[in-house]
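Hey L., structure's done. Input below.
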Amino acid sequence: MTSSTLKTFGQQLSRRSWAEPWKIKAVEPIHMIDRDERARALEEAGYNTFLLRSADVYIDLLTDSGTSAMSDRQWAGMMMGDEAYAGSNNFYHLEKAVQDYYGYKHMVPTHQGRGAEHLLSQTAIKPGQSVPGNMYFTTTRLHHELAGGTFIDVIIDEAHDPNNEHPFKGNVDLEKMEALVTEVGAENVAYVSLAGTVNMAGGQPVSMANVRELREFCDRHGIRIFLDATRMVENAYFIQQREDGYADKSIAEILKKFCGYTDGAWMSAKKDNLVNIGGWLAVNNFDLFDALRNLVVVFEGLHTYGGMAGRDMEALAIGIEEAVEDDHVHSRVGQVLYLGELLLDWEIPIVKPVGGHAIFLDAKGFYPHIPQDQFPAQVLTAQLYLDSGVRGMERGNVSAGRDPNTGDHRYPALELTRLAIPRRVYTQAHMDVVAEAVKTVYDARQQTKGLEMVYEPKDLRFFQARFTPIS
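Output:
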């Protein structure tokens, strides 16, 4: 071996790759149907990827909710299900896991996150009150409205700019909070609806400094803070990586400290907690807990199962523990970053910085010639499926819905197509395929036309709406 060869070999060794902190024990075969079949499937689905059959999808990035792969420990835990109607052993395991890792005193299980949203909204919102939050989420805002509340967006302005690289675009703007309290009075603010790793902003985190300042503000005005903890583990990762003073702290330590600034949290366990179904609602105040555990019986199930089987609660308790392992979180967010960097290298417009659970394609950047009332994000979602069988979802005008007072479309500043990556499911090779598909669609962008909505349901229209191409 020559000296030059040795030098080259040494240079190669200086690069150290990372790998997923798991090995595959079972596989589920997938295949891609041909383009003509995809075109037929898309037309039958009304150009709405929610209405596609999963058998017609090649790589499914519709959502990271309930699509994660469970571990061998979780599957073993499923065999320990105590299916007693009352007082299941698995409930107490779940309760302890929430207390240990999130720090709240009292916990009510629910069938999934929106069950928890409903319970909290019905018990903590009075008709006519405002509910400020760091950007809306579809089901959360609807539950606020069904309880008689009005959602008020108090996220920082940087969150509405896909090209702004503020490291914590999920932060609450305290000046907006002050203005709201001045306008309506603190007594007319139900609570602050704070989301970690804000979904509709592109998976953007909240800083520890911001939640601490928000806590101080709310204490001065007697306002409670309830946390959408659905993706708080990923939020803790960004604090660890980006905020001074946390580089030597574990994900578990950061998560518990952040939650300590809030009065309670609701969780769609189908995301961070690594299960296919389930949720929980946890609070510190006993009187509120007492109201919640009474109401859960009406809508979900007894307060010791809340709509979940015992085996599902056991898998969830184990998933909470696994979700805060640093190696797992670094790998999970690292895979999202890997896909994002591939797209950025090709100068494809995405929300920056890359978020925690998904890549958000900037549909306005793809299709500046398609007006927002022709649903460019829905167009992009359909085109990506047509090209490659990759299923994403729209997060723009369709998701924003209509203003309940005027009936007009809401036109959010962000018109996005989300590619949500399930946890522990796909490999880097799948991400390469996705990146190449996105680039193919981007290269053909100038020939792409808009869509017309031909069917619109009353609520959460993005799930069931149907479209047809504009000729």
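DSSP finds 17 helices and 14 strands in the chain. The chain has a mean pLDDT of 95.

-- N.
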